[in-house]
User: Fold this.
Amino acid sequence: MPATYTYPGVYVEELPSGVRTIVSVSTSETAFIDVFARGPVGRAVRITSVADFERVFGGLDARSEASYAIRQYYLNGGQIAWVVRIAAGNPGRASRIVTGGSPAQNTLRIRAANAGAWGNELRAAIVNTSTNAFDLHVRQVRQVSGSPQVVASEVHRNLTMSLNSPRSAVGLVNAASSLVELEDLGIGELPNGAAPDPTGAVADSAFTTLTGGDDGTAFADDGSFTDANGFSLALIAGLDALDRIEPFIFNILCLPVAARLPDTQLQSVVSAATTFCADHRAFLIVDIPPNVTTPGTDGSGMTTWMTGTGNALRNRNAAVYFPRVRVSDPLNDGRLRDIGPSGTLAGVYARTDATRGVWKAPAGTDAALRGIRLATALTDEENGGLNPQGVNVLRNFPIFGNVSWGARTLEGADQQASEWKYIPIRRTALFLEESLFQGLKWVVFEPNDEPLWAQIRLNVGSFMNGLFRQGAFQGTSPREAYFVKCDKETTTPADIERGIVNILVGFAPLKPAEFVVIQIQQIAGQLET
Assistant:
């Protein structure tokens, strides 16, 4: 708007509407923490497909419960995952030293991009293309069906040892390669390598193997933990990586390998994870140990486990499922492997969110479990014994196949009478909290008076009304479905003096129809016509 009106005529001014759109956040981005075949350690990586996971983390690994869970996540409808690789014991990085000059001196160190035995599959070749430049060829060679096969390769051309050159080997390779890193050992000599081939081919004999890669000692040969407490601490430390993904968020957390830990460590990991989820408005899917195989009160019974270890895990931001599931294992000739169902259910959550909304329970006949077999088949009576304990059951029904048949949080036991009994209610609340948290940051430092309060009511009310129109709440009118209060009643003069504005948002959640009761009555006498 001009400061003054100087000439006669028509002036056009644009006025702000006062509406600041609150955008719905994601609801089903899922985080997985575990050991993996390869990949950066202690850093959360965003992946969008199984192919992405294989490229960055090496795909399936017999030691990694989460590698199978991630495959199940995408098979069942997952879209975005955050993967954190933790160190297993003290893993080492494969490397080799390249010499150069005359007499030969150590010139360059070639290292695997990250730690692990996978680095021992790397082969590197230096080809001198001129007196000042060379090409670096890198291959990853794996034994497939008893014969070596190149599964990944890179070529970095016209590299020099000059750190100031735009073709600096260290700068270019370290920025571009997903297989190796280079370290200049300070000699400055061009590395000795093979002569260039007129055809551009590089002889197999020119490649040398990187050595020294090691996966660490977290697991014994039988798959047990060599240091269960140390591994549980590594899992807990892995949560810190999810703190550094801003401005992105995660909504669901899966820790499949935690189910293999002894009870004490399992409780420690889940306690830390639920606290972390509460702080980040996220939801945890808990896997049960492999030795919990029956629904009852025997030594391997789910009811027994829930009255002991499971009872210590109760939390409104978590859910548990019974039984475990079995999936085909390509690493073992397609034989079935027993895994926790968290990855499968996270995919079902994502699929349900996408098709129906986060307020729909991820359960029922349309919550099909793809690519699994159930480790235990349950009857209605056995299902009825677990449901009141807050245990969600996976069932197999004719026609519908394997489905999720429960929608309770770990605070959903009947005796607790919690308002957060159901998964969709809790996840809807978390969704609202995160959306409002992200969408109201503009309020900070605004003048704290009625104009601001009115604008908040308008913006939040518009957001809530949009959800109401999508069917997110109970009620036939907005008044019945939600309310937004921000005025002199919620924000007192004392609050204003302390720099506080209070916003009260209420919603009427949709509760799942958990029990369908059909009453049939015989009509006595003759009907009138």
User: Anything to note?
Assistant: The chain has a mean pLDDT of 93. The chain has three domains: 30-88+221-424, 95-209, 459-529.
